[in-house]
Write a structure and sequence with these properties.
Elements (H helix, E strand, L loop, with lengths): L2 H5 L2 H6 L2 E2 L4 E2 L2 E2 L2 E2 L3 E2 L2 E6 L2 E5 H9 L8 E4 L12 E4 L1 H9 L14 E3 L5 E3 H30 L1
Antiparallel strand pairs: 1-4, 2-3, 5-6, 6-7, 8-9, 10-11
Bound molecules: zinc ion (2 copies).
One zinc ion binds next to helix 5.
């Protein structure tokens, strides 16, 4: 590693190794770090720290400074992701609790806006519901096309 390389702004060094078209979470793509990883998290040398967590560096330069004791939670569960929209600062205890409790089976965070209560008292995730409805809609389009093709064949 030469000197000029080290002097380049850290965000520039990170972003050239980030694929901003990663898997979608909650409608936006993960920013996947393609550089060095350690325990699944992207790492980069930011003097004086030799082993800084990439997602923390990105979050702090795009969103704001974080006290060292505050962890960043990957809402998308993709530990190499550094999309600030997929990161949420937490204290350790809340971090543990939230991961267990307030999520639907597909891992969407349960908030007041995306949760509805069914008559049997169960909660339903609106993000999942929307995805299911979209899938059903597309299936219906396929079905209608197939039906139209069948009618056409019968008449010709
Ligand atoms: Zn992500
Ligand atoms: Zn869901």
């Amino acid at each position: 590693m030469n000197h000029s390389h080290k002097c380049r702004p850290v965000m520039e060094r990170i972003m050239e190794k980030v694929n901003k078209d990663g898997p979608l979470w909650n409608g936006t793509p993960c920013w996947e770090y393609k550089g060095a990883l350690s325990h699944g998290y992207g790492r980069i040398s930011v003097p004086p720290c030799k082993n800084a967590a990439v997602h923390r560096v990105v979050y702090q330069s795009l969103v704001g400074t974080l006290p060292a004791r505050i962890e960043l939670d990957h809402l998308c569960k993709n530990t190499r992701c550094c999309n600030p929209a997929h990161l949420e600062p937490k204290t350790h205890s809340v971090h543990m609790k939230k991961n267990k409790k307030d999520r639907c089976i597909n891992g969407h965070l349960r908030t007041a806006e995306n949760t509805i209560y069914l008559r049997n008292g169960k909660r339903k995730c609106l993000i999942c519901k929307r995805i299911q409805e979209k899938a059903r809609y597309h299936k219906n389009i396929e079905y209608r096309r197939e039906y139209a093709r069948k009618l056409w064949r019968e008449r010709h």
